[in-house]
Amino acid sequence: MTDSTDLPSSAPAHDAPAAKKPIRILIAADTFAPDVNGAARFAERLAAGLVARGHTVRVLAPAASRKYGTFDETHEGQPLTVYRLPSWRWYPHDWLRYALPWVIRSTSRRILDDFKPDVVHFQSHINVGRGVTIEAEKRGIRIIGTNHFMPENMLEFTLIPKGLQDRVIAMAWKAARRTFGRAEAVTTPTQRAAEFLEKYTGLTDVRAISCGIDADNYSPNFEPRTENRILFVGRVTGEKQIDVLLKAVALLPAELDAQLEIVGGGDQKRNLEHLADTLGIRDRVTFTGYVTDAQLRAAYSRATVFAMPSIAELQSIATMEAMASALPVVAANAMALPHLVHDEANGYLFEPGNSRDLADKLLTVLTAAPDALNAFKNESLKLIESHDINRTLNTFEHLYRGEAVPDQINNGAASHSAE
């Protein structure tokens, strides 16, 4: 990573597909790589995919450490200029950092005047999204907004008394309405998430656009299983309800010798390790922490079934990666997960928070005959086809240019036309 003392000069244009002029895009995010979460991964893949198509893309995000400035970075194999804002740790959270509003505003003014993007695409209405959209609107720059955030998910990382939490959530949704109201188009990963955003903000015509995934990066494994391995991938935090999964594993018959692998880091790791000890399954549970991309792909390949007990998924990239790896999925029947998991087709949905129901569904997959297991696997591969990253990139290119989005089924929901 190379530090630049001055803002970089405009990058040379490249020929875009279909002979259209390349677009200059500023992606603004409150969380970006090396952060490990769905929103950060989406922003990274989107930026890299657009660069690969010949567009000029830059990213504005809080610094991941005390080192801030303008950097030349490589993400997903593509070169990117990333403006890293001075940031501070949000100490109730195990890694989250934030930038101060007045710093965001002043930096946004400088970047927008120097870079002169055709479009600003912000990834949440919180600090960075709010600041950059205020300045972009003043300059008449086209704005696209994507929501990956639910205020309720952040409550456990605040010190707000329970009696005030409902009021704070209502204020957060009002703030979302103001920021997303500046956008020419608003998107979110699934139709369920779009309906949720419309309900709590009063916005209309929110588009459901899948985060997308490059299925070629994953290796489906149809070899006969030699062990019963359950996999979870994600942040080890409260809203993921990993405790429900641990309790379900404890309910499985001992003769299955089911092994649980939990990939990811977070503030609940120590508590969950203690729970595994209490349940008497500590020897069958592995907490890997954060892993490399290669290690993650290997984890998908050796698993028998993927479990997602979370009740707060606006899409779940980890579930999509599992499906691209030809894994059956057992997931909570909550939020956007039913868009990915079709009950009795590529896995099962279980009653949220119900460890017994989760255990029963896991048992069904783990004891399935080879033909039945392969049917689950093939259905996961079939269903993930509609989440191809190229479809996602195509859709955003149309939105960036202000073009009508061709009629298509994207992520189980018909795309709207651009204004």
From TrEMBL:
Protein name: D-inositol 3-phosphate glycosyltransferase
GO terms of biological process kind: carbohydrate derivative biosynthetic process
Start and end residues of each Glycosyl transferase family domain: 222-369
InterPro entries found in the cross-reference section: Glyco_trans_1, Glyco_trans_4-like_N, Glycosyltransferase_grp1
Start and end residues of each Glycosyltransferase subfamily 4-like N-terminal domain: 36-216
Recorded GO MF terms: glycosyltransferase activity
Keywords annotated in UniProt: Glycosyltransferase, Transferase
TM helices/strands, residue ranges: none
